[in-house]
Amino acid sequence: MSGRKHLWTMAPGLHAACLLLVVALILVTPAAFAQEDDSGGDSTQAPGNDNLDFDDYRGKGCVDDSGFVYKVGERFFPGHSNCPCMCTEDGPVCEQPECPKIHPKCSKVEHNGCCPECKEVKNFCEYRAKTYKVLEEFKPSRCEWCRCEASSEVHCVVADCAVPECVNPVYEPEQCCPVCKNGPNCFAGSTIIPAGMEVKVDDCTICQCSQNEDWWKTERQATCVKRECERL
Q1: With the CA atoms of 171, 177, 190 and 222 taken in that order, what torsion angle do they form, in degrees rounded to the nearest 10?
Q2: Which site from 7, 102, 153, 206 is most exposed, i.e. has the minimal number of CB atoms within 10 Å?
Q3: What is the pLDDT of residues 9-19, one digit of tens each?
Q4: 167 and 188 Cβ atoms separated by less than 8 Å
Q5: Is the pTM of this model over 0.70?
């Protein structure tokens, strides 16, 4: 009898190990089943969340700047200042009309539609940092006559001065072209003599300005003739 009892008696260390294994199985098995249930629930809800967060209208419609959706085939304006568009399966196809040109003197342009519009054209002219009224005439210099036209553009005429008939012209205040205050003249050497008469420049020389027409344009020197010198 004592021999049989010895065969069926379990060692203390082995008995403890078996108890730990049974407890571990009891604790781990429900958690594993619970994890599988949770993962199965997430897999069924994920596609629904993606559809709500990321709407895709490609091939179904078009969206404007305000978030409104238009069906394929509808005509709409994408934004406040945009040209009209047609919604297609490939996206909006927008019109590009030929807009009228803006006046170069336009001072106020509005972009409230498909094309920009000029709302105000300035009624004055600017010339050399100064402002002039429409149809006002003015002289920016002694040789310029200008006018502010109705188009707000300045048109000027510049005087073309003729060649003076003298070798010592002067410029008078408020006059564009020089004037010969002492009449026509020319040079006789370094001396200025009047035109139209013979002038004795020394005891042996008599000079005269050319008698040719328009002589002053090319000839500034007098024609001089040597004569017998006067004896003292």
Answers
A1: -150
A2: 7
A3: 444 554 544 55
A4: no
A5: no
